[in-house]
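Design request, tokens follow.
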């Protein structure tokens, strides 16, 4: 559960009646134990986690999960429990990201800094994942305290434009380093290491590796979604004379 202090607007326990949210955009919304009645969702798009969601009394989460598995069979591998499972999940992610980075590198440089519908750009997404790796793996799993680089990485909920974005290749150099070092950690995993409680925390190593894998998978989905839009834009005829 997130700390509510990070939200600019705290509407917990609110009751909204006869509200028109047409063409509204909601970002970083936490709706635990919320109840919506008398609502009409027409041409509505939702991206996020789906746990315990019911629609007209019908559990939606199992339906969404089944469709995810149909479209993306690799999704089933993203909740590993054994050292071998973590290695397999990381190998899948390495392959997916390699293909996606290749797609991004074929775009003009300005486009990898372009935001689609206000979401992070491709470069910002990679910077965020560097931060996730530094925070979850190197800070807690290995105990290292300083693995940040250059301009601050993108934090959770940070959607402000960054005028100091480094180039895609500069970000990729750091990104490749982090992924290679995670590979070394995962290759050396044992059951005992997965269950080891990290220093200064009450959580085992597996908890932080699960965070990294979940973030890598989710942001890869978002990156592909937005790259589809950018690639389409890159092939559109110029509107100039």
């Amino acid at each position: 559960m997130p700390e509510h202090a990070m939200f600019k607007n705290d509407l917990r326990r609110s009751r909204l009646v006869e509200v028109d949210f047409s063409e509204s955009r909601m970002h970083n919304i936490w709706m635990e134990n919320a109840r919506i009645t008398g609502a009409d969702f027409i041409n509505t798009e939702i991206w996020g986690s789906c746990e315990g969601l019911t629609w007209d009394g019908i559990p939606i989460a199992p339906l969404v999960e089944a469709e995810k598995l149909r479209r993306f069979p690799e999704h089933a591998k993203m909740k590993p429990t054994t050292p071998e499972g973590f290695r397999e999940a990381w190998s899948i992610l390495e392959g997916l990201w390699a293909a996606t980075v290749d797609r991004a590198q074929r775009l003009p440089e300005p486009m990898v800094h372009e935001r689609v519908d206000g979401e992070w750009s491709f470069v910002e997404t990679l910077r965020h994942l560097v931060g996730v790796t530094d925070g979850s793996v190197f800070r807690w799993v290995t105990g290292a305290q300083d693995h940040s680089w250059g301009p601050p990485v993108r934090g959770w909920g940070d959607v402000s434009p960054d005028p100091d974005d480094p180039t895609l290749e500069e970000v990729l150099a750091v990104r490749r380093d982090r992924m290679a070092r995670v590979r070394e950690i995962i290759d050396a995993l044992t059951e005992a290491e997965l269950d080891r409680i990290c220093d200064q925390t009450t959580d085992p190593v597996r908890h932080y590796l699960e965070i990294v894998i979940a973030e890598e998978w989710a942001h890869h989905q978002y990156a592909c979604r937005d790259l589809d839009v950018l690639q389409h834009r890159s092939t559109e005829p110029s509107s100039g004379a």
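Comment from the thread starter after seeing the answer: thanks! The chain has six helices and two strands.
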